[in-house]
Specification:
Structural class: alpha/beta
Largest sheet: 4 strands, parallel
Shape: globular
Order of helices and strands: EHEHEHEHEEH
Strand content: 15-25%
Strand order of the largest sheet: 2-1-3-4
Number of helices: 5
Bound molecules: 5-nitro-6-ribityl-amino-2,4(1H,3H)-pyrimidinedione
Helix content: 40-55%
Number of strands: 6
Length: about 150
């Protein structure tokens, strides 16, 4: 029986982070969590590039360009989509999720969905470094794990 379980080692791997400026108060915390988690798994700053985009809706296109550049082992997408009074939230969140999945499959590399979808600001804060953990950290760990597990599929 062959069982593959990846180690969490980011040494020598290259990561692009696409982060949304919308709800910067939250996304800055996701970015901090993401970078510190990558460093905890031995990535150094030279292996990490950060690309700011206006909102979650714009993330898939930027991720697609980065995937096409073929310089990265994984792309990590960070945003906070917070439900407002209108249905705008649903469109933004679902297009972002769909686009990220498409880029990942078309590009053949991990494109990680580090996007908070929250009912309100309080819930978003909880998931950006307080009692709900930090979704940016989780996304970094997922990226490192996926890069390592894919390397073992031959
Ligand atoms: N963008 C977000 O990243 N989060 C949100 O909560 C959000 N809401 O709710 O409107 C949001 N909207 C902007 C959107 O991502 C685009 O930038 C905009 O529609 C221009 O294309």
């Amino acid at each position: 029986m062959k069982v593959v379980e990846a180690v969490l080692n980011a040494e020598g791997k290259r990561f692009a982070i696409v982060v949304s400026r919308f709800n910067t108060f939250i996304t800055k915390r996701l970015l901090d969590g993401c970078c510190s988690e990558l460093r905890r798994h031995l990535a150094v700053d030279e292996q990490i590039e950060v690309y700011w985009v206006p909102g979650a809706y714009e993330i898939p296109l930027a991720a697609q360009r980065l995937a096409r550049a073929k310089r990265f082992d994984a792309i990590i997408c960070l945003a906070a989509v917070i439900r407002g009074e209108t249905s705008h939230f649903e469109y933004v969140a679902s297009e972002c999720a769909k686009g990220i999945a498409q880029v990942s499959l078309a590009g053949g590399l991990p494109v990680i969905f580090g996007v908070i979808t929250a009912e309100n600001l309080e819930q978003a804060i909880e998931r950006a470094g307080s009692k709900g953990g930090n979704k940016g950290e989780d996304a970094a760990r997922t990226a490192v794990e996926m890069v390592n597990v894919l390397a073992q599929i031959v």
